[in-house]
Each structure stands twice: as C-alpha cells, then as structure tokens.
Amino acid sequence: MNTVKINASELCSRKLWQLINASAAERISETELSEVVEELARRRHYLEDLQELGKLGDHRDN
C-alpha cells in the first residue's frame, strides 16, 4: 500500500494527468484524486478532458 501522500502542487501537469487517467488512479485515494483534479483545474490545464471524463464537477470558468 502506498503511504506517501501526493502533493499535487509539486507535480507537473502531465504527471497529474497521468494520475487521473492511468491505473494509477486506483492506487491513490479519492481525496488525493480530488486534489489532483483541483490542481489541474487551477492551472487551467486539461479542462476539456476533465469535463469529458466527468471529473471536473462544479469547476466552471465564468
């Protein structure tokens, strides 16, 4: 079991995207996955892709 907490702000956007997409998503907690999605949304990277996956939730750019 992975006991290292992911700090999403320290990872590049590509790595964050990999965590969301790959089987790695099964290896991180729901809380960490949520933090990864939030960080990508803050950076405004992969927004369309996150919406297509249904992971973006209520994060909208007004």
Arithmetic mean of pLDDT: 75
Largest sheet: none
Overall 3D shape: globular
How far is it from the N-terminal to the C-terminal residue, by CA?
A: 40 Å
Counting helices, strands and paired strands, the structural category is mainly alpha
User: Helix-strand pattern, N to C?
Assistant: HHH
Strand residue percentage: under 5%
Number of helices: 3
The share of residues in helices is: 40-55%
- Write down the Rg: 11 Å
Number of strands: 0
The parts where pLDDT drops under 50 for at least 5 residues are none
Describe, in plain words, how this protein is organized in 3D:
The protein has 62 residues and is mainly α. It is 48% helix and 0% strand. The protein has three helices and no strands. It has helices spanning 13-21, 30-43, 47-53. Helix 1 (13-21) crosses helix 2. The N and C termini lie far apart (40 Å). The mean pLDDT is 75.
Structural features:
single chain, 62 residues, mainly alpha, 3 helices, 0% strand
Brief characterization of the structure:
48% of the residues lie in helices and 0% in strands. It has 3 helices and no strands. It is globular and about 30 Å long.
List the helices and strands and how they pair.
Blueprint: H1 13-21, H2 30-43, H3 47-53
Helix pairs in contact: 1-2
